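Section 5.1 Outputs to date
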Amino acid sequence: MNRPCWRLVDVVSRMLESGERDVVLGDFAESGESGGRALCEVLGLVVRRQAALWKDWRPWLVLVGLILPLGILLSIVSRFTADRSATYIWLYANNWDWALLKYTEFWYEFVDSAALVFGWCLTLVCWSWSAGFVLGSVSRRIVQVYGVLFCLVLVFGGLLGAPRYLAFLSQYIYRQFPTDRHDPIFALAFYRVMLPLMVQAVLVAVPSLLGMRQGAQVKTFPQVLRTVLWTAAIGTLILLLVQEPGFVFFLKAFWLQRIWQSWQIRWLQFVVYWPAGYLVANAVRRRWHVKTAS
């Protein structure tokens, strides 16, 4: 029983400042406290520290101004990505025919479809990572709580918000542009329920938490680099908002579609993938430091 408790103590104590965490863990080691008592004490200390932080107005502003809208927005885009990817997954997974492998035309279509779905998933991952990066860079001391709150918003958005919003949007589009509503794909529970949850967990929640972890370290970077990273992150989130399904329809800003389809703007959309460049550059920098240190 003691060993699991001490593991929990180590995990919970990470919500404290590094200096205070070292002092607390050192006191536990010297006093010979049991794991259960140490866990209760560190939980009480963390609650008191977090409660003191929430007396300020800034965490509430982040909650209302960033966590709630970003969580709901990413839930909607995640559900939309899962729904349109389901068409291609169903096409190959549920209608697979080994005899098609000998046809060159099949491989052309398969590669195109795989590239299309991969592009949608990569874009969603970069949007999620950028949102987490912004949240993590806002406040390093409370980033763990932000992560928990953000995941709760994702759960609400994934189970209730996004399905209802997209159902309303679908009805709105049908009224504007009548189409055939017969859909054999979402009659299957996997594509209707399981796939959206898997996409949200793997492509939204995990990248967002990793982005928060990286964003919490941004204050150690030079001012110029911080400005560049913040500009890229904010630009990515603006693109996320504008490309959200329903943005053009509800605002009746159909002229935006013509602008986004121009080749000049399409080049600007590559800024969405800045997290990939950042992670590669960060990995190269760490490897270089290890080599120089050795």
